[in-house]
């Protein structure tokens, strides 16, 4: 250190302080992708392109790949020559061409904005905006939207084995008011399936056949991240064996 201070003609204390500051600088994590590097996905680029051209949406492909970054999927498609990226609508749909009266009639008949969004492959906000522009009064959401008869049906469906999420989708409410209703009525709740009981091999086969992580997560009572992680772990085990 003294040799350094003599060479650059500064005090020994100055060199010592400079070295201390340098040692406090965080070092880069070599395990993290560097800027410009491609993140590994559990699905090949060719499979992403094939499914997209077959009609899968960017959202569905992102779920399949276990990522929330839509731009990652868009970039993979662009890299393989797919330059006409759909805006999230079903192939052939243009937002201005959505069947307004058909959507209004379905909503008035009891369909939820979420269900209509899935049917036409648009966000539920798009459906809500369409209804509001047409002057259609929107129904209440949450537990307040359930009539006494519907509350009894919720309990009956749950006791028959239907999941809380599916019950909520049927009545146009989230999972939370369904859970609250069941708790208030003293209904014995089912426990989610243990993660180590998941049929991982079967799940991987179904993912490769085109089913989404969201659908499988609902079926097995776990989160989408759990499905993605277990599928990735299974593939890594198969490759190493």
Summarize the SSE layout with pairings.
Layout: H1 2-8, H2 12-24, H3 45-53, H4 58-64, H5 70-79, H6 100-108, H7 113-120, H8 124-133, H9 148-159, H10 164-171, H11 175-184, H12 200-208, H13 213-220, H14 224-240
Please provide a written account of the structure.
- The longest helix has 17 residues, at 224-240.
- It contains 14 helices and no strands.
- The chain has helices spanning 2-8, 12-24, 45-53, 58-64, 70-79, 100-108, 113-120, 124-133, 148-159, 164-171, 175-184, 200-208, 213-220, 224-240.
- The chain is elongated and about 90 Å long.
- The protein folds into 5 domains: 1-26, no CATH class; 33-85; 95-133; 143-184, Arc Repressor Mutant, subunit A, CATH 1.10.10; 195-240.
- The model is unreliable at 88-93 (pLDDT under 50).
Give a short overview.
The chain has about 240 residues and is mostly helical. It is about 55% helix and about 0% strand. It has 5 domains: about 1-25, no CATH class; about 35-85; about 95-135; about 145-185, Orthogonal Bundle (Arc Repressor Mutant, subunit A), CATH 1.10.10; about 195-240.
The total count of strands amounts to: 0
Number of domains: 5
**Overall shape:** elongated
Mean pLDDT, to the nearest integer, reads 75
- Helix coverage percent: 55-70%
Q: Could you say which structural class the secondary elements and strand pairing correspond to?
A: mainly alpha
State Rg: 26 Å
DSSP strand content:
under 5%
Number of helices, counting only DSSP H or I runs of 4 residues or more: 14
């Amino acid at each position: 250190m003294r040799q350094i201070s003599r060479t650059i003609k500064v005090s020994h204390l100055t060199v010592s302080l400079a070295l201390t500051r340098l040692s406090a600088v965080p070092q880069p994590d070599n395990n993290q992708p560097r800027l410009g590097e491609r993140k590994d996905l559990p699905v090949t680029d060719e499979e992403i392109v094939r499914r997209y051209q077959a009609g899968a949406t960017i959202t569905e492909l992102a779920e399949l790949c276990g990522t929330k970054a839509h731009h990652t999927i868009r970039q993979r498609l662009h890299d393989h020559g797919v330059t006409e990226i759909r805006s999230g609508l079903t192939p052939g749909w243009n937002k201005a061409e959505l069947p307004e009266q058909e959507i209004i009639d379905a909503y008035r008949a009891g369909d939820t904005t979420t269900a209509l969004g899935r049917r036409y492959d648009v966000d539920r906000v798009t459906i809500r905006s369409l209804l509001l522009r047409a002057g259609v009064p929107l129904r209440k959401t949450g537990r307040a939207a359930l009539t006494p008869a519907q509350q009894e049906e919720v309990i009956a469906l749950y006791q028959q084995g239907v999941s809380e999420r599916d019950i909520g989708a049927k009545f146009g409410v989230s999972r939370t008011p369904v859970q609250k209703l069941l708790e208030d009525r003293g209904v014995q709740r089912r426990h989610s399936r243990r993660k180590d009981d998941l049929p991982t091999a079967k799940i991987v086969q179904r993912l490769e056949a085109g089913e989404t992580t969201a659908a499988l997560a609902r079926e097995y009572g776990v989160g989408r991240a759990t499905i993605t992680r277990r599928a990735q772990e299974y593939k890594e085990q198969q490759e190493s064996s």
